Amino acid sequence: MDFFAQQARVRGSSRRLVALFVLAVIAIVAAIDTVVWFAMGHHPVDGEPARSNLSLLFTSSVVVLGGIGFSSLFRIMSLSGGGKAVAESVGAVPVPPDTRDPQLRQLRNVIEEVAIAAGVPVPDIYLMEEEPGINAFAAGYSASDAAVCVTRGCLDNLSRDELQGVIAHEFSHVLNGDMRLNIRLMGLLFGILVLAIVGRKVIWFGGGRSSRRDGGGGQVWMIGLALIVVGYIGYFFARLIQAAVARSRESLADASAVQFTRQTDGIAGALKKIAILSEGSELQVANKQEVAHMLFGEAGTFNALFATHPPLLQRIRALEPGFREEDLARLAASLQQDAEMPPAGPATSKPRSPLGVPGVAVPPPLSGVLAGAVLAQQGADGGATASTRFQRAATVHQAMPATLTIAVQQPESALAVVLALAMSAQAELQASQRRIVADAFGDDLQQAVQAIAVEVAALAPESRLPLAALAFPTLKQLSAGRQQTLQSALDALVRADGRVDLDEYCLARLLRVQLIEAQQPRRTPMDGLKKLPACRDSVMLVCAVVAANGSADETAARRAWLLAMQQAFPGETLEWSAPPAAWQTPFERALDDLDGLMPPAKELVIQSLASAIHADGVVSVEEAELLRVICASLHCPLPA
């Protein structure tokens, strides 16, 4: 499967379907205008029928468009609470950071490791406790605002690899901008449906006896009936288009999940178990249609017209082309036979089998028929590297001291950990840095920072930003004012010695970008429209900063930069220029410029940066941290 080609195809399909939404609204306006013209404007007025009709039609069009627009905006604003609000609306409960439940602990570990490996903030984690089906969804306007919610059926029936595949699928929705698109489509659907609701009110109030007495009841009744008919017809077709948009985005999320994990076993195994289990992916919650387009699987009974996902067999075959329907029957029989076998030895707990039968442990993940072929198609950043990336993320996560992972679970102690990460190792600077912390947050927090600073200083360099990522969900709970104070304090801490070291800059920049987006998620930019040549100077500067910070001397830096330029602008002759001493401000302006690139152009920028990083055959911690910050600023995941 060519996943990058699949991404391009689905994005183009989504744009066409959204254009159909616009055409549907235009058709609705035209239909209402036609009825209004026959009901009220067909007869001449003062001998000027054309002018009267044009004015009437203009007024009618403005009223209908305004009604749809304001109703849609109202609905979108009602969903502005972000991923957390959406999860709570379906009865999901947050998974505590300090949970001792083995299944919930595994869920947190998987989500945190996928976040660390992909270079995105750790999302809020929710569980739908009473849902036995296998399903999940991610909601939010951006990665910084995301919440990932899974059902109890996921925990009871999926292996760790399968759970990882489902989580990677949900991360893809956030990174691909699907949540923002879905919220806007939901708003437009509501705006169209409001026409029918207004039509009923018009008939009830405007077409009643009082209107009939003055002879206008028939005209008003006709307009009200038209609003009802056109509103419901428009809603019907809008639902069809929404379902088609959702299906195309689900195909993209499946492809992106394999890009994250570089193996088809996990997500394909989860889809097979949905097909086998009697509960499937169905949800019991009453308002399941609210989130149906966000889910990993269908929320209820499959309906070809309004299905928000491609058929299960189609999704499985896209991952494993040789898979056949009869394979599901054999797999179900095999798993049922395993479930009926007694446990091999004494068990202290009763895990559930893939078929929901207590007493049998979850089996290994299902193997993908074409997994090797899929990995071979990924090129230089192929499956072995991606698999290693997830292993490294798990290793870094598990190697963190328990005292620190516990500390980041509470807002005040998480604040102390992040401030300690910005403290200098030089004793002569620590006194002035402690004063900065005390002035910003008080003596109590300053003492907490001092107490934990020794353990933070002993942390492995590659664990610094992942630890900050683990602290992020807790830091979001701080008030807006306290978050602003944190950003100011971090800037002051890293500049205490009159210069900004790379690791200090990466920490401050990463948290600033993510906290600002978490406060104002709806302002997070969507995919840009710029092409790479329009941002040539920004690409040159960013690559120069990466090359200079990852090379032993200027000659090596120039060589690494030239490799990046050959990747980004093949055939062009460009002159190397070392980044200025005070590179941070122009670097940030360049990142903001690059964030407006089209997705394929961003991909080329990341590939160019990877070429510069690999020029000397070594990936240093500094290079990895800088690349993590660049990817966060460009709203794209880390490359494998």
UniProtKB/TrEMBL annotation:
Keywords: Cell membrane, Hydrolase, Membrane, Metal-binding, Metalloprotease, Protease, Transmembrane, Transmembrane helix, Zinc. Its cofactor is Zn(2+). One of its GO terms (molecular function) is peptidase activity. The chain crosses the membrane at residues 17-40, 52-74, 185-207, 219-238. GO terms for biological process: proteolysis. Residues 105-320 form the Peptidase M48 domain. The keyword Zinc applies. It comes from the Bacteria. Pfam families: Peptidase_M48. InterPro entries: HtpX_protease (IPR050083), Peptidase_M48 (IPR001915), TerB-like (IPR029024). PANTHER family: PROTEASE HTPX, PROTEASE HTPX HOMOLOG. This is Zn-dependent protease.
